[in-house]
Each structure stands twice: as structure tokens, then as C-alpha cells.
Amino acid sequence: MAQVRDEALQAQWAARRTKSAALAERARQIFPSGVTHDSRYLEPFPIYVTHAKGARKWDVDGNEYVDYWMGHGALLLGHNHPSVLQASSEQLAKGTHFGACHELEVAWGELVQQIVPSAERVKFTSSGTEATMLAMRLARAFTGKDKIVKIQGHFHGWHDYAAVAMEPPYDEPISRGIPKAVQNTVLSVPFKDVNALRAILDAHHPEVAGLILLAGGAGTEYLQDVRELTRERGIVLIFDEVVTGFRYAPGGCQEYYGVTPDLTTLAKILAGGLPGGAVAGRADILALFESRDDPQWQRFGRIRHPGTFNANPVSAAAGIACLNVVRSGEPQKQAIRTAERLQRAFQEILDQRGVHGIMSADASILALRLTDGKVSDRELTRRLRIALQVGGVDFDGASFKVSAVHDEADVQQTIAAFTQAIELLGKDGAL
Ligand SMILES: Cc1ncc(COP(=O)(O)O)c(C=O)c1O
Predict the structure, then answer these.
(1) Whole-number mean pLDDT of the chain?
(2) How many domains would you assign to the chain?
């Protein structure tokens, strides 16, 4: 019976998405599983989007959605914020790459320096993954040590060192293809467990170069302890603020919690919705990038960091426009207010229907955890995404990234779609 009902929901959903189905068929002949980012995978096929504006986006079949992907978290100001759109399109007309230094990169870097507390110096990259990889290399080069401590389950992108301790069992990397030698350079501890951290640092600190973590939801007390433990042992403390940077507060979690790391990794909001990332931090550590008139230093002392699209003028223009808006702190407050409202409404819907689930809010990001589904978690997420899309809402299956431009109509539509989705999942036996 449950199967039949699910098929009915899926048939209703698929009937209005025939053009997406056709594109997915073509995509499967090119891309493994048809997708260009793991989290966009959806059975039986993902939607294909043609355009977006504000908090909304439209697919090739003309369906409209309230969007909670928000550029994987990059779009705190929503799709096509007028000043970001104007700055980036004006820059497109002037040139996309000069193979040269340019004024926009200076202005972009100055903004990061002014807004992010730890940012004495800045180095731009093209993505968050590049930023965390570079921060780890900096920590290693600065200390002359090899090991990095990370927190179990914390995501820092897709490079080899970040693939370690992502999902249980934590001693197995999340991906094939990670050399054992790399795995052996990364130690991991549970989140917010100061004793476990102290123990691993006591056991290994002569070899530990850096500690990287997501500071979102960590709390001031824990971060102060982490700060002290790392400072005492000369370990480079890295906050990965790729998501939380400019979102918790203009200066990210380090401003919000009042704890300053040695290095910070940034991306997403940093570049206003275009590709871009950065490592920012202590001047004495970033001095390792300097060129000097000293052959010994040039060959053996410094860190090399090329990158064709580092600080490209279009990303810089978008980033400057975006940071000039977010630096006031108002967009963050607006997004957090909306997120809190949605969180209360979602939790009420779950509680009223006796569905075991938790909707938690971390600043303007809501995380949904349904705890006693009657189907696998993966299948439950799949059905929820489809049921929400039927109601005109799209999210990534794990979190709702709320922007400063989700308005009352978006909130109302979201609450109605969530109510309907939970009822549909209940009826089809998934909950
Ligand atoms: C906390 C965190 N760090 C790093 C990354 C990697 O960033 P990118 O996807 O730009 O490589 C992500 C991506 O979602 C992230 O959430």
C-alpha cells in the first residue's frame, strides 16, 4: 500500500517535470549518475533550473520554487541582488581576466580585512576546498609539523585531507582513493568534547601543526577552551568559515562568539554567488607566501600558490558589492529572524502530527533530522524533497539556507508545503 501511494505522489510530481526528465536522460550519458555535484543527485531525476530571482527559482517545465539551496549557502542576499548583479555585469563587459593585478582585488581584500577579525592578511583562492587545503598547508609549513586535528563529521570540502573522519566509521575516509599516508596525517576528535581534544593534543602535540573546525554552533566557552589549548601548544587554530563567514555576523562566528583563530577559510558569501575563496589570518603566518630576494627562501622557504582564477575581476566585483551590503549586519539579522520563525513553525508541524523529528536553527541555517522514518534515511529524504517540490519548495535534503530576502509570502508557502509534505509522507507510510 505504501508503495502504491508513493508511486502516486511521484507520478504527480513527474507529470509536471517532463523536460527535466529529458535533460536528465541526456545528462546520464555524460556525467556519472547525471550530476555535477553529489548533493544534486535525486531519484528518479533532478529538476533543471532555468532562472532565479530573490528567493525563488524556476525549472525548465515552468514550475516555481521557494529556494532554500541559496547557491549552497552563497546567496545570503538572494538570487541576483541588484547591486551584485550590476557590479558583476559591468565587470563582465570590461573583461573577465586580465592576467594582471587589478584594483578590484585590492578593494575586495581590504573589505575582508576590515570585516573579519582574524584577517591581518588575505590570500584569495577559487573555492572553499582550495581554501581549507591551503590553510592546512600553511599550518604545516609554519610549524614544521605534519599532523592536522579535525572534528569528526565536520565537512571542509573534497580534498584528500578533508575526506578523513567525515562519517562513521571515522577511521575510514568518506571517499575511495585517499592514500593511507594522507589518512595518517589527520587525527580526529568528537565535536565540543574538550577532554577528548586535550587528550589527543597531549598524546600527539609535538607532531600537530593545526586544528581545523566549523565554529558554527560551537559556543563561546568551547571555542575559548580550544583557543587556549592550541595557543599553549603552538598549534595553528583554523576556523573554517566557508559557510558561517559573513552569515552569523558580518565577521562570522569569530565575531559572533568573540574568539579569534589564527587562520580563517572563506568562500560562498565572500564572492557574492560567484566562484571564490580565501585564507585570511595572522600576518606572520601568511608571510610564508612572500617572495624575497633570496634564492634559498624562494626555493626552500616559501609556499607557492598560483591559481588561474584567484581573485578574478568578476568574482571580485560581485564580492565587493555583496560585502558592502552584508557589512551592516542587517541582512544577517533579517535572515536569522526568518529562520527562527520557520524553525518554530516546522517544529510545531512535526510535534502536532506526532512525527519524531528535530528542526534546529544555526543562525540562518535550519537543519532537519527526522528520527524514526519507516524507510531508510536516504529514501525518506528523497520522498521529502519530492513532496516539497510538489508544494513549490526546494531544499538539499538536509538544511534550509534562509536568505535576507525570503519574505512573508515565501514563509507562508513554505509552511503550507511542509505541512502537506509531512502529511503525504505519513500517508505513504514513510513516517
Ligand atoms: C564548511 C565548508 N568548508 C569547505 C567547503 C568547500 O567549499 P567549495 O564547495 O567552495 O569547495 C564547504 C562546501 O560546502 C563547506 O561547507
Answers:
(1) 96
(2) 2
